[in-house]
Amino acid sequence: MFKLEINDKEYLIEVTRRSIRNAEKMNVELKLGAEGNEFGLIYDMFYIALLKHHPAVTMEEACDLMDELIDSGDYNMSEVFELIGKQFEEVMSKLDNPNPKKKIILQ
């Protein structure tokens, strides 16, 4: 989780398994390299990362916030993508890495 200040207001940005599940329910495409989708992917990821702590925000509002963040000069789109992308990677890596301490007991 990290904080961003946009127009003198603080926003908490966090990606969780629930965030990703909500994205799936909204049919948000979260695959890198989808042809013609790189630009939209950054906006979608930003929206999804806002939802846990700001559930009332709409996609349109999230896009406006992203534009304001970029226009402020504090971050560029690549930096935002990197910050949020690391959180997505961390959550997704836990899905693919079973806990080796748990053993299946067969009877």
What topology emerges from the helices and strands here?
Layout (H helix, E strand, L loop, with lengths): L1 E5 L2 E5 L3 H9 L12 H14 L7 H13 L5 H20 L11
Antiparallel strand pairs: 1-2
Helix pairs in contact: 1-2, 2-3, 2-4
Description:
This protein has 107 residues and is mostly helical. It has one domain (2-96). Helices cover 52% and strands 9% of the residues. The chain is built from four helices and two strands, in the order E-E-H-H-H-H. Strands 1-2 form a two-stranded antiparallel ribbon. A hairpin with a 2-residue loop joins strand 1 (2-6) and strand 2. Helix 1 (17-25) crosses helix 2 (38-51) and helix 2 (38-51) packs across helix 4 (77-96). 17% of the residues are buried.
Instruction: Kindly estimate the percentage of residues that lie in beta strands according to DSSP.
Output: 5-15%
- In total, the number of strands is 2
Into how many domains do the coordinates divide?
Answer: 1
Instruction: Report strand order across the widest sheet.
Output: 1-2
Helix content: 40-55%
- Alpha-carbon distance between the two ends: 43 Å
Largest sheet at a glance?
Answer: 2 strands, antiparallel
**Number of helices, where a helix is a run of at least 4 consecutive DSSP H or I residues:** 4
Ranges with pLDDT <50 over ≥5 residues? Answer: none
In round numbers, the mean pLDDT is 82
Structural class from helices and strands?
mainly alpha
Query: H/E series, N to C?
Result: EEHHHH
Query: Radius of gyration, rounded?
Result: 16 Å
